[in-house]
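Morning - adenosine-5'-diphosphate inputs below, output right after.
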Amino acid sequence: MGQGGNESAAELSAGWFAEVFDHHPDGLLVADDQGLLVYVNPRAARIVGIAVPELLGQDIRKAIPLQEYDGRPWWDCTDPWNGLAIRSGHRERLLVIPGVHEVLVTARYVRPGRGLPVSQVVVAIRDAEARRRAEANSSALISTVAHELRSPLTSVKGFSSTLLRRWDRFTDDQKRLMLQTIEADADRVTRLITELLDISRIDAGRLQVRKQPVDIYAAIERHIERFVASGYERERFALSGHEAALPEVWADPDRLDQILANLVENAVRHGEGTVSLNVAPAGEDDDEVVAVTISDEGEGIPSENYPMIFTRFWHRSRRGGTGLGLYVVRGLVEAHDGKVTVGKAPSGGAEFRFTLPAGAPEHVR
Ligand SMILES: Nc1ncnc2c1ncn2[C@@H]1O[C@H](COP(=O)(O)OP(=O)(O)O)[C@@H](O)[C@H]1O
Ligand SMILES: [Mg+2]
């Protein structure tokens, strides 16, 4: 407070504004009519990597040598001090500070009157790292996808060309083996494309869930049968829980199948030993949700990886895979207002648990 409390309202509000600008999440810089920096907030100093006291009094054009993408100095292009006296500023531009990185820059030229030289230039800079990361993320998606599509397609192409050109040279068994490989690879491509379409729906919040009463227990049994039919030993699966003891659950049967397929596949592919599946009522009164637990006896997942595991592309194993499965699982479970978590099974393996709300959705009650 000012001495004797006679600080003027203007001074008070100036102090208040300075404080607001000091805490502003974007970098703010003010240069005077000569281009010398008269104000720099801490965020701006952090972005350009120079301390506030070192920046103050410097020529903004030298202290912050913004460049266009092609390397042209931005200050020469815009030149608020000598350029057209009617310009009032600049919209957001992606520029480069040499040696720092990309920044998003907006500028406002303050003139005491129309057509007069600038009295102040106010510049806001924002770190463009996050945007660049988001872009890198989508180009990582493209390259993962391209890579994942190429290997099955190469094998489809290779085997079908070979069969067409040398049909008579192979035995029936050899032909069958090649056709089976082609089929499996075509399935892989289809699955990947389905995952990608789901990801784009999840990301856009457009995932549709068509709920109807489902029998989770029977769905799990079906998945076990499928894995057994595709060559896994029945002894690898242990289902517990009681079909009769379960409250009614409404879910999208296709989505539920996708969730189960992903988690069971992970357990057999990334885990080891017996895959234990359990379905039981859970929640505070034991009837709010139905919880499905899938655990295995493999090496499990280190707890420091738990926060990453449901993100896109995260994978640790050398056994192939896109790292998209669990991202899709989480999106699907959450679209049902359920939750999915990861933990350690009693055997030390990985344990995945997801819940689905019990009871019919409100509109059919
Ligand atoms: N049951 C499990 N045991 C050990 N690691 C697992 C298990 N389930 C998933 N993981 C790890 O999580 C990663 C991500 O899984 P997911 O998103 O399904 O991708 P993908 O199966 O395509 O690799 C896997 O690559 C694996 O490293
Ligand atoms: Mg997977």
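Note: The first strand starts at residue 27 and ends at 32.

O.
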